[in-house]
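Hi support team,

I submitted a single chain yesterday and got back a structure, but I'm not sure I'm reading the token output correctly. Could someone confirm the output below corresponds to the sequence I sent? I've pasted both exactly as they appear in my results page.

Thanks,
R.
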Amino acid sequence: QVQLVESGGGSVQAGGSLRLSCAASGSFFGINAMGWYRQAPGKQRELVGSISSGGRINNAHYADPVRGRFTISRDNAKNTMYLQMNSLKPEDTAVYYCNLASRDSKYPYDYWGQGTQVTVSS
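Hi R., thanks for writing in. Yes, this is the structure output for that exact sequence:
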């Protein structure tokens, strides 16, 4: 069984930075993608960005609201993904979730972390 554990959330003032981590434990196989999602109160969960198992920064994709401010990276040796968040805005306030999903039909899986709170004050 795979477990995803997020860390690094907290409270920061607008314009500040935070770095989230997502550590995956357990065994998983095949091509996959790790992603960050967020859910603000009263809103649906939305994709922040994702990165393929290749791990290169330029393989990451971002949602429009965070592009240019957030950077996703991945250390495959540590099975850990990071989300560097700069120039934070109050509208970035949400619970941030980590996701690990297979991109290989031979090894289907889809795992979620428990979430970590990010609060940005104006």
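A quick pointer for reading it: Residues 9 and 118 are 5 Å apart (CA to CA). Let us know if anything else looks off.

Best,
Support desk
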